[in-house]
Amino acid sequence: MDARISECPNLTERDQELLRRIEAGLPITADISRSDLLLCCQFPAHRILVVSHAAPISISSSYPQSATGRIDSPDEQPLVWQALTHGRGGRRQLEVVARGAPVIQVVYPIFDEAQRVVAAFAIETNMIAHERQLRRNRSFRQATVWLQDMCMRGELAGAADLSRFGLYDGIYLADRSRTIIYMSGIASNLFRSAGLEVDLAGQRTSELETQDDEMVDWVLRTGNCLEHRHESVDGRVWVRKALPLRRSSTWPPLRYRLPQWAIFGARERTTVDAVLVLLHNATDAVQKQRELNVKSALIQEIHHRVKNNLQTIAAILRIQARRAKGEEARTHLGDAVNRILSVAVIHEFLSEDDAQPINIRDLCARIAQQVKQVAGDPEQKVEIGIRGPNIRLPAGQATPVALVVNELMLNAMEHGLSGHSRGHIDVELRDLGDTVQVVVQNSGSRLPPGFNAQQSGSLGLQIVHTLVTDDLKGSLQIESISRRMAQPEHCDAENGVVPSETPLDRAELLGTQAVITFPKRSLKVD
């Protein structure tokens, strides 16, 4: 419901509660009526506020988007204004054309206990759907009218918890004696598929499935809506919804022309006259979802095993590095360990939930911990900070980003901060809408004159350039800096990632900066 309902004049708390009860029944009523339902109130400055709009899913709506919150003038909605100001509704054909046919609008006033008009209830039906409704079974058309009346009275208790009624769902109507007086063709086919011979001539709900008779009996006793999901031993999964119906007080064509007391009656009615049962066969959807769950679990297990295997390879390379005699060999093996662990981090995220995009801020923080542990010098005090918003990317982009950030951190540790007793590395993430920018700064040495990243003999920078330009389809810029570097937000003292309270003089620091800019890839495509 639109929040501006509180601005509508003369609406008490009880009036607003009535409108919330009406709103709860709008979606299911719109589906069964195959109509757009709008709840409107008078707004200041002689305007009309659509406080709630329910579009049907059983048929195409006349509205391309929800009308909730729309403000109209009396000239745009004359019947609604008439109902709000004079308590009299009406019927007219709108100029709107939906699906090649005009729309019929029927409007009713909503009254409170003191006979004051508090809202207007508009039913807008495509002419084609309206003509089809006129050719339907008389009992079903009567049940639809009763359902609309109960919705307008806010009497559909429990309707807010019901799932929607779809185009291919079945429906049947049972009276107080639990005798079926109407059953749609779809419902008949559903029961036949379950091996039940359906005879519409006075068949009792007890002759259907056990769940049908129990639900109808419960709704007749309580007067509340009910939804039940049942899975049979043969694998069928059906979702049943049961709605109570109370007889309309007047003949339908006169309802919007009579006073409120003639429509709703002077006394509250509690007797349930009939029950409308909706049938949805969810078997295929449930089976497909279960298959997806199994596949997802298998994929997560694969990612978990890949992560473990990569970590095992990294451990083997560490052993090899310790046995290597040359310093250069140890350095190269250490770099390889970091690259492997960066890929392992991706598989660790995917093993937790492969369907979710990866938060690269968390990814950078995890890589920072690894770089600190693997490449850090015990005699050197280096702090690594991560700042910026949470940015989620598909795994296809997160993997090269992880490798790029790893290489730049390693390069900063081994070259930029080499020979410095202390320093820091800052990683800043920037969400620029359609593009992402990752900035890696370090407080170490400046770049040598004439430095060119593309022509550099460094294997790490060559890897970075290839990943940025080929995989991420972005650009790379590396330059020297001489300015104040911002205090990072990320704080993890245990793993050596910058604690914000650590006193560091950051005024006019020298160092280098790498800026990677690349377009976002759709999370649906990987």
Structure, explained:
Residues 251-268 and 485-508 have low confidence and may be disordered. The protein is of the alpha+beta class. The protein has helices at residues 13-33, 78-86, 127-134, 138-153, 185-193, 210-222, 260-264, 283-323, 327-352, 360-375, 395-416, 459-471; strands at 36-43, 47-54, 71-72, 90-98, 101-111, 117-126, 170-175, 180-183, 226-231, 237-245, 274-281, 358-359, 381-387, 392-393, 422-431, 435-442, 475-483, 509-519. The chain is 38% helix and 25% strand. The strands form 4 sheets. A 6-stranded antiparallel beta sheet has the order 3-2-1-6-5-4, sandwiched between helices. The protein is elongated, with a radius of gyration of 34 Å. The longest helix has 41 residues, at 283-323. A hairpin with a 5-residue loop joins strand 5 and strand 6 (117-126).
Distance between the termini: 37 Å
Strand order of the largest sheet: 3-2-1-6-5-4
Low-confidence stretches: 251-268, 485-508
Beta-strand proportion: 15-25%
Give the proportion of residues in helices: 25-40%
Could you tell me the mean pLDDT? Answer: 80
Largest sheet composition: 6 strands, antiparallel
Number of separate helices:
12
Order of helices and strands: HEEEHEEEHHEEHHEEHEHHEHEEHEEHEE
Broad shape: elongated
> What is the β-strand count?
18
Kindly provide the radius of gyration, computed on alpha-carbon positions and rounded to a whole number of angstroms.
34 Å
Helix-strand category: alpha+beta
Write the layout of secondary structure elements.
Blueprint: H1 13-33, E1 36-43, E2 47-54, E3 71-72, H2 78-86, E4 90-98, E5 101-111, E6 117-126, H3 127-134, H4 138-153, E7 170-175, E8 180-183, H5 185-193, H6 210-222, E9 226-231, E10 237-245, H7 260-264, E11 274-281, H8 283-323, H9 327-352, E12 358-359, H10 360-375, E13 381-387, E14 392-393, H11 395-416, E15 422-431, E16 435-442, H12 459-471, E17 475-483, E18 509-519
Parallel strand pairs: 13-15
Antiparallel strand pairs: 1-2, 1-6, 2-3, 4-5, 5-6, 7-8, 7-11, 9-10, 10-11, 12-14, 15-16, 16-18, 17-18
Helix pairs in contact: 1-4, 8-9, 9-10, 9-11, 10-11, 11-12
